[in-house]
Design goal:
By secondary structure, the protein is mainly α. The mean pLDDT is 87. The protein has one domain: 434 Repressor (Amino-terminal Domain) (Orthogonal Bundle). The chain has five helices and no strands.
């Protein structure tokens, strides 16, 4: 099953960023980020989480599980 990953490119371009800019945020090479963005490699959850925080959205939004851009409200575990 191929994931729809074009949203990664979409949100990056909306911010006026290049792949190398996002790669620096994730502390990876531009080549590695390009592989994630093009779907050649699956992005690890820690990287997805960092991107969601960076873009102020949710992982679900980045993965097309929702069209709601706002991040989820934080919840406190008891």
């Amino acid at each position: 099953m191929k994931l729809r990953i074009d949203r990664l490119k979409e949100v990056r371009e909306e911010k006026g960023l290049k792949q190398v800019d996002v790669a620096k945020v994730l502390k990876i090479s531009q080549v590695q980020y390009s592989r994630y963005e093009t779907g050649m490699r699956l992005m690890p959850i820690d990287k997805l989480s960092k991107l969601a925080e960076f873009y102020n959205t949710s992982i679900d939004y980045l993965l097309y599980k929702t069209d709601e851009r706002k991040p989820y409200a934080s919840s406190v575990m008891h």
